[in-house]
Amino acid sequence: MPEDRMPHPRTVVLHIGRHKTGTSSIQNTLRHNRARLLERGVLVPESLPSNLSGFFLNVFSKRPEKKRHNVQHGFDRALIQAQGQQMLDRLAQEVDGFAGDRIVLSGENACTLKPDEVAQVRDRFATMLAPAGGQVDFRVLLYTRNPVSYASSAIQQNIKKNNTLLEEYKRFVLRNSVGWYQRIHAAWAGVFGAAAVELRSFETACATPGGLIGNFLTANGIAPEGIAPQRANDSIADEIAEFLSSPHMPKRPPDQRGSWSAGFDLSAADQDILFAIRGSKGGLLTASEQAGLWEAVAGDMRFLEQEFGISYRSGDTAGPAPFGAVFVDDLAAALPRLSPPVRRGLLAYLLDRPAPCDPAQTQPGVDS
After folding, report:
1. What domain range includes position 348?
2. What domain count does the chain have?
3. CA 153, CA 150: separation in Å to the nearest integer?
């Protein structure tokens, strides 16, 4: 085909994270607006899950059987590979019937792939996702977040999911923070080229007139008009995260917890009540832990500022004070509705803490 008759390259957007930067909201928005986006020549594959983290890891990771989800469910490599191939086949079939110029794939755990695994992403998608007789232009996007804010958010989410306790996951997050952005950028820019990889500030995106969703869409050449944002994955209050990790939280016996479970003995009703209590956010690290984290990520912060103009400073994550008026009001409304064991545990936790919250003022008018 003569060069002047070659079809325009198709843009393939690879949104690779980061975890805790609004990825669920982005994915829910893409899914909810799939038909409208398709009318604009943008494919959000219906043949794949909304969150492609499992897809990226199962298809492109060297050892997918070692990933947490697969270990929990007892999936071996043969089964994982078979499922991965089925997803690839469905995607290829869907792309064959697509004539638009843009495909969006979003999976926050894709950013954890190693360089040789990233190369497989490029090699596989360069042919599978290209238009007939054409080529693919890849665009890789990752959102960043203030390290203290990220650490607190990641910790509380794992507690909320009943995966781990506060101190256990805190050590994991702090240990894995050093050089994170530089490693991810090196892996993806080394394969796709630095010009194809962009890091954007989650905080700056949220503060723009169109919010995170508008920022994401415009960054990827998609008009945001008429696209209804879908919020997801609200975090829980620090006070509740600390209670769940405390000795006062009722827990199941170890032999009834399963793999990677903190063992919280919570009914669905108790979860809904506790998770709706508003309170402090972003304060799960002590002052000394925050100082140590800033020191550990200093190199990463210099990298973000020099390469992408993203600037983070200590002290810019202050949120509501713990055990404030909003928390106390929500607590007073929640206590009568909790099951007796959880209510007793929560009151014992409050009594055990040197905090400006007097449980006597929030005692429910029922026997605890």
Report:
1. 238-362
2. 2
3. 5
